[in-house]
Q: What sequence folds into this?
């Protein structure tokens, strides 16, 4: 190409770039103006008549939220069977499965002015969720310091040690009777792989003891993690452990054993359109809590266009880790044993039929 031709091409790109950006904005923001009825979406809401547990589902009278797992009280029955030990685990020996509903970790982000809280599950948008609550509760300071929801980091975040609680009962005292409580869950395989890449590969480069000093060896890590989970569920291991805190089954968070039905439960969306769709569902929750529209619009925009600094989605390391796990039946079976009840309770599909 001649110098004149190259120069003209650069000019054309410069002229067209704003148009491309505008189109992207329109595509993403169309979610904002859609009918905000959540019926038929993948989000999970406990809004059904429960068996004689004495627990009442949230938001009585709401009609625009889907039933738990979109299957009615049948799935509630499965959860109750798991709790009382009568659920049949298919091909698995129950003694080899990591038990569900251990009360291991509770971390909440709270916006008292809106009676709003989110229970944080590690490797499920915890950093950006903290940024959202910081923006909701400290909007003026957040804007004045030119912060962005999508670029906050854990160590340098504005709301360090703010809005955070580590006890379910304490959160209830802050929220009062009229409250909105939610959490986000993620496909167990995707969550495990994201955690492995972030903690064992990326952090492992500068912290050799990370992930049991396995130096990126997934088989080594899974063996040690499975052993630690089996020990922790007996109550013999109660102290904080970095790997256990980040890789525990999702049913071990949020005091789910006693308060599973308190929460509106959303499912993390994978794929290129996943975050925009999840943003639409989060907005419906924030709207229910009466968060002002201008704040909600900024949250939606940041979720659509932003990307957190340590996201692993779509990276070469993530693809490699996925291949290692999915091509090793023994390894995959162990991971399923660790997270089996996450698949069942939160209605995720087991990746392959396996036998014990």
A:
């Amino acid at each position: 190409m001649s110098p004149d031709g190259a120069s003209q091409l650069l000019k054309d790109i410069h002229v067209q770039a704003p148009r491309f950006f505008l189109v992207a904005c329109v595509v993403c923001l169309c979610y904002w103006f859609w009918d905000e009825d959540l019926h038929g979406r993948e989000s999970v809401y406990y809004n059904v008549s429960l068996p004689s547990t004495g627990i009442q589902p949230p938001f009585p009278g709401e009609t625009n939220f889907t039933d738990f797992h979109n299957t009615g009280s049948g799935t509630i029955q499965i959860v109750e069977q798991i709790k009382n030990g009568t659920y049949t685990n298919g091909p698995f020996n129950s003694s080899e499965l990591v038990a569900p509903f251990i009360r291991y970790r509770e971390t909440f982000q709270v916006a008292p002015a809106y009676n709003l809280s989110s229970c944080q599950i590690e490797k499920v948008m915890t950093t950006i969720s903290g940024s959202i609550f910081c923006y909701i509760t400290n909007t003026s300071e957040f804007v004045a310091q030119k912060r962005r929801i999508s670029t906050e980091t854990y160590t340098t975040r504005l709301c360090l040690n703010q809005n955070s609680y580590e006890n379910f009962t304490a959160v209830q005292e802050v929220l009062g009777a009229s409250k909105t409580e939610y959490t986000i869950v993620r496909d167990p395989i995707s969550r495990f792989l994201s955690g492995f890449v972030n903690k064992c590969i990326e952090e492992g480069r500068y912290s050799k003891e990370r992930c049991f000093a396995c130096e990126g060896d997934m088989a080594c890590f899974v063996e040690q993690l499975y052993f630690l989970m089996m020990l922790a569920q007996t109550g013999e291991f109660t102290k904080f452990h970095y790997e256990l805190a980040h890789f525990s089954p999702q049913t071990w968070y949020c005091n789910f054993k006693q308060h599973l039905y308190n929460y509106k439960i959303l499912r993390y969306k994978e794929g290129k359109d996943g975050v925009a769709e999840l943003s639409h569902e989060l907005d419906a929750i924030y709207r229910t809590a009466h968060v002002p529209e201008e704040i909600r619009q900024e949250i939606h925009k940041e979720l659509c266009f932003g990307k957190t600094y340590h996201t692993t989605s779509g990276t070469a390391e993530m693809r490699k880790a996925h291949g290692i796990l999915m091509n090793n039946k023994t390894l995959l079976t162990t991971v399923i044993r660790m997270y089996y009840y996450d698949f069942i309770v939160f209605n995720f599909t087991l990746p392959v039929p396996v036998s014990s």
Notes: Residues 99-346 form one domain. Residues 232 and 239 are 9 Å apart (CA to CA).
